[in-house]
Write a structure and sequence with these properties.
Elements lengths: L2 E5 L5 E5 L8 H8 L3 H20 L8 H30 L4 H7 L2
Antiparallel strand pairs: 1-2
């Protein structure tokens, strides 16, 4: 049987059985048990960025103009499509009788 330690509403630590928690997934449990890995990964990330920065100091810059234009065009298309989708949902919800209650109060 597995247990996790959590802090309750009053600030005290309590022990919970993992088997009785229906809303916790295996992935979430892995992150709870291996929280320190984020510190290691962050440290390695900073070291790699600093090493690459010193390595690239003496090199010629990359020519990325065309790639940057393509990236920005894709981002613009995605933003427009997302805006249209959200606008469609907003107009539909706004036409409902209880707009404010269904969009704000129930979530």
């Amino acid at each position: 049987m597995s247990f996790i330690i959590v802090r309750n509403e009053s600030g005290e630590f309590t022990q919970l059985e993992v088997d009785k928690l229906s809303n916790i997934t295996e992935r979430q449990l892995w992150f709870i048990n291996n929280w320190y890995m984020t510190l290691y990964i962050s440290f390695v990330y900073v070291v790699v960025i600093l090493l690459l920065k010193s390595y690239m100091r003496e090199r010629k810059p990359f020519e990325l103009r065309k790639l940057l234009v393509a990236w920005n065009a894709g981002l613009a298309i995605f933003s427009i499509a997302t805006t249209l989708f959200i606008l469609e949902q907003f107009i539909f919800l706004n036409s409902q009788k209880e707009f404010w209650y269904t969009t704000v109060c129930t979530r």
